[in-house]
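Repro:
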Amino acid sequence: MTGALELPGLWSLSRATGLVLIVLLSVTLAIGMLATARRTPSWWPRFATAALHVNLALLSIGLLVAHIAVTVLDGFVDISLTGALLPFTADYEPVWTGLGTVAALLLVTAAVTAGARRYLPPALWRRTHYVTHLAWPVAVVHGVGVGTDSASPASAAVTLGCVGLVTFATVLRFSTSSDHGWARLSARAAAVAFPIVIGVWLGVVASGGTS
């Protein structure tokens, strides 16, 4: 691939940045949901939770840029800048790589709307900010599908740990609501069930790769 670097450590660095990014996204999402549900400790100030949530989100965006850059520069697989930025156009694993692009675009959308929050109607901001919830499972599936070491004990443990954290935060988040509309109940049930389904799927992938 033109412009790629044949360095043995680049693909490992790409995988490492991807795993760390999943951890950051999971922690950021969990903190946001726990803060919304007011499940943070009483001695911990709310402004500190908000600041931590924002700073982790900004760190995630920075790491996302690094992850994309390292992946494009790496010569182990053929992923061009265009393939990395346009969903499902990469030569290498177009579906799994495309899902990563979709997750990245959703995260950038969330970051932009968060930065423009003061200029947006509150209802519009809340709805667009919820794309972070969609970006997380898409990013998890991307990481498992595209990774050459997804079934390794370390990678599987990190991914399953992140799924468990978000599942726990999701259960707490939706257990505090008093709204019992069928549409909202269905959405909450899906939000709880989806991470669990992903966790089971990851467990199958891990056991299959080590058998």
